[in-house]
Amino acid sequence: MRRGGKQLALYLVVLLGALVILVPFYMILVNSFKGIRESALFGMGLPSEWLFANYEKVFEQGNIVRGFKNSFLLAGLTVLCVNLFASMAAFVIQRRDDRLMRSLYLTFIIGLIVPVSIVPTIRLMDILGIKGTYFSMIMYYTAVLLPFSVFLLVGFMKQIPRELDEAAMIEGAGFFRLYFRIILPLLITVLVTVSIVVIVSVWNDFFGPFYLVTDSTKWTIVLQIFNFVSLYNTNWGVVFAFMVIVVLPVLLVYLLLQRYIIDGLTAGSVKG
Amino acid sequence: MERRKYPLYFSYPAVAVFLLFFIAPTLIGVYYSFTNWNINADSVKFIGFDNYAALFQEPRLGKALSNTLIFAAAVTVLQNVIGFALALVMNESIRMRNFFRTVFFMPYVIAPIIIGYVFRAIYHPEHGIVNKLLEGVGLGFMAQDWLNDPKWALFSIIITDLWKVSGFAMVIYLAGLQFIPKDLLESAAIDGANYWHRLKNIILPLIASSTTVNILLSLIGSMKVFEMVMVLTDGGPGYTTEVFYTYIRSTFSMGEMGYSTAINLVLFALVTLVGLPVLAALKKREVEM
Question: Are B89 and B271 in contact (CB under 8 A)?
C-alpha cells in the first residue's frame, strides 16, 4: 500500500514535469490562431475565433519560402560534409591509433571545448573571397560540428572489430571499398545521430548567419524570424504562427528519428 | 592488419576544413586583438596591449565574467541533478515511459531564439502565465517582473535554459544506466542494501562516464550561451545579465572589431581554463577503462 502511494506520487511528479515542458509548445500553437488583441494576452484558452489568417500573413512576407530554401540547403549540405569528413577521419584515427592520430583526436576534442572566434572568421571569409556565400556557411558549420561528430564516431568505431577489415582485405578490397562497403554501413546508427545533431544545430542557429551573412536573400529562416519580430512584434498571433512554421520541420525530424538519438549517443559517447 | 597501413589521407578533408575554418580564425583573432581594427579606421594598426588594458578597466567585463560563471555553474549543477533524477525514473518500467522520454528531450531541438520569445511571453509581468499562476494559488505577492528586475533576471534565464537542456542530460544518463546489470542491483538488494546505498555504491560509480560527458558538455555549452540571453534581456537591465557573447555582439555592433576579438579571446582563455581540467579527467578515466 505504501509502495503504491509512493509510485503514484512519483508518477504525478513526472506528469507535472511533462506538463511544464508541454505548456510552452501548447502556448505557441494555440496563440497562433488568435487575433491581434487576444494573442497579446498570451492566454492558455482556446481562441474565441480560429484565425488561419495569421499563417497567410506569414507567407505573405514573401521571403519565407526563400528562408526555408536557405535553411534546407545549408542543413542538407552540411549533413553531407560532416558525415563524410568526420567518418573518414574517425576511421583512420581509431584504426591507426598512433601518436599522430591521438593528437589529431585531441585537437578535435579541444575544438569541442573552445569557442569559435566569430569576428575573425568574417575577416577570414573576406580574405578567401567567399564572404557571405553558401559555401562559406557550409564550411563554417562543418568546422564547428566536426569535433562532436568525430568524438561520437571514434567512440563507435571501437566496437567494429578489426577482423572485419582483415577479412575484407584478404578478399582483395582496397581501403576505399573497405570504408564504403563495410565500415560506413555499420556506422549508420551514429551517422543518423550525427545528422540529427547537425540538422538541429544548423536549422536553429542564429549566431553564424547573424555575423557571416549580410545579404538578406541568403538569410535562414531563424534570422528571418528575428528580423520579423523586431519589425512586427505588435501582432503576436502572426509571430506565434511564424514560430510554428520554424519549429515544425525539426520537430518532425526529431519525432521520426528519435530512437536513433538514444542509440547513437549511447554507442558513441558513453560506451567508448 | 598493420595499423600504419591505414591511409592517412582519409583524415585530410576533415583536417583541412578544421584547420582553415576553425583554427585559422582563432590564430588570426590573436593578431587582431592587438590591433585597432574598427569600421572607422582607415587602416588596421598594431596597438599592442591597448585593447586588453582598456578591457580590464571596464566593469562591464567583470559583469560578463561573473554572470557567465554563475550561469554556467547553476546550469551545470541543476541540469545534471534534474537530468539524473529524470533518467532514474525513466529507467523504471512506468506507464507511457516512451512518451515521457520523447517529451523531456523535445525542447532540445527548438531554436534558442524561439524559446527566448516564448519565455518572454511566459514571464510577462501582466499577462504571463507565471504571474497568473502565482496569483491563482494566492501567492500573488510573489509575482515579479521576472526579466526586468535585476534581482530575478539572471535567475529567470537560468530556469529557461534548464527547461531546454535537462532532457539532454537525461538521455546521456539513461544511456549509462543501460549498462548496469540488473542482477547486480537485485543481488545488492537481497544483501540488504537500501536504495540510497545502491545509488551511492553501484549506480553512481558505474555511470561515471555519463557524468563526465554531461558535465563537460553542459559547462562548455552554458559558457557559450548567447541567443537566449539576447532575446530575453539582451544583457539588461543595466548589465545585470550580460554574458560574454552579448558583450561581444554589442561591441561588434558598434564597429569595434579588434576590441570584440579581444573579448572573445578572454572567453577563449576562460573556457580553456575550465574545460581542460574536466577533459583531463575524462582522458584519465578512459585510460583506466
Answer: no
* Inside any domain, residue A137: yes
In a domain, A216, yes or no: yes
pLDDT value, residue A134: 94
User: Which residues of chain A are within 8 Å of residue B224 when distances are taken between CB atoms?
Assistant: 115
Distance CA A141, CA A154 (A): 20
Q: What's the domain range around A110?
A: 62-227
Q: Sign of torsion, CA A112 A193 B86 B132?
A: positive
Nearest to B1 among A98, A166, A207 (CB): A166
Q: How far is A66 from chain B (nearest CA, A)?
A: 19
A71 vs A48: CA distance, rounded Å: 35
pLDDT, tens digit (0-9, with 9 covering 90-100), for A169-204: 888 888 888 889 889 999 988 899 899 999 999 999
| Chain position carrying cell 502556448 | A27
Minimum-distance CB partner of B14 among A89, A144, A166 = A89
pTM comes to: 0.91
Instruction: Please tell me whether residue B35 adopts helix, strand or coil conformation.
Output: strand
Sign of the Cα pseudo-torsion (B31, B35, B41, B44, in order): negative
Option in A200, A225, A262 nearest B113 (CB): A225
The CATH number of whichever domain residue A171 belongs to comes to: 1.10.3720.10
Helix, strand, or coil here: A108? helix
What's the confidence (pLDDT) of residue B289? 40
| Closest by Cα among B147, B162, B112 to B236 | B147
Q: Is A269 exposed, middle or buried (0-12, 13-18, 19+ CB in 10 A)?
A: buried
pLDDT by 10-residue block (mean), chain B, 289 residues? 81 96 94 89 84 90 94 96 93 85 93 95 90 88 88 95 95 87 82 82 84 89 93 90 94 90 94 86 59
CB contacts under 8 A, B 129-148 vs A, are 129
B120 touches chain A (CB under 8 A): no
Closest CA to B165 of A21, A170, A171, A210: A21
Here the ipTM equals 0.90
Query: Which of A113, A140, A225 has its CB closest to that of B275?
Result: A113
On whether residue A45 sits in a domain, the answer given is: no
How many whole angstroms separate alpha carbon B119 and alpha carbon B105?
18
CB under 8 Å to B91, separation ≥6 — which residues? Answer: B174, B177, B178
In a domain, A23, yes or no: no
Q: Is A228 on the interface with B (CB under 8 A)?
A: no
| Cβ-based contacts under 8 A for chains A and B | 248
Which residues of chain A from 152 to 211 reach within 8 Å of chain B, CB to CB?
162, 165-166, 169, 175, 179, 200, 203-207, 211
Interface test with B, best of A119, A135, A179, A225 (most B CBs within 10 A): A119
A8 and B CB contact within 8 Å:
no
Taking contacts as CB-CB distances below 8 angstroms, the residues of chain A near B13 are: 84-85, 88-89
- String of b and e for A211-243 (b: at least 16 CB within 10 Å)? bbbeeeebbbbbbbbbebbeeeeebbbbbbbbb
State the total domains in chain A.
Answer: 1
